[in-house]
Here is the input.
Amino acid sequence: MRSLKTFLLLLALFSASSVYSQEKINILKVGGNLLGLFSEGDDESYGGAGLSIEHQLGSKTTLGFNVGLNTKKSEASDGNFNLKARVTLITIEPEFRFYPKSATNGFYIGIAPALTIISSKISGDITASDSESFFGGGLKTGYQFPLTSRLHLQIGGGFAVLLPKEDTDGFGRYDVNLMLGFQL
Here is the structure.
């Protein structure tokens, strides 16, 4: 957990210092996303929201930092037992993007290492909770375009492979997002 705090502190310092750059574009984005996990025929989808900052590195490249929070609630009852479950996913990922046209405008493709924390809580006649973290990485793609001189709209998605700490098989994660950005 200490390495996670160090990682987050370094990314926060990078984000804070890059916001004040005069010659490069910085975009703060907020929006909704749909995130899914799948493995061996099982597929679960979670709705949520995301926050992102994107900093222009060159004429066609950017570096971003994305944080997503997705949740899903469910209830079950068989007449004898009543259960409520809540699963929360927190995704933290830096992302490097390449734009063929120009940075922060048009089609993009990116790579993103990721940390995903999955917490589950069961309440009712039986109570339990669990939390696990998974590292992985994947590809991102989408389209971003300016609406005005300061507002940007992004439609994107991606696929990642998450690897557990144990010697078990990894699983896939996909996401689809719609974000509104404000150029700082």
Summary: Residues 16-22 have pLDDT under 50 and may be disordered. The chain is about 10% helix and 70% strand.
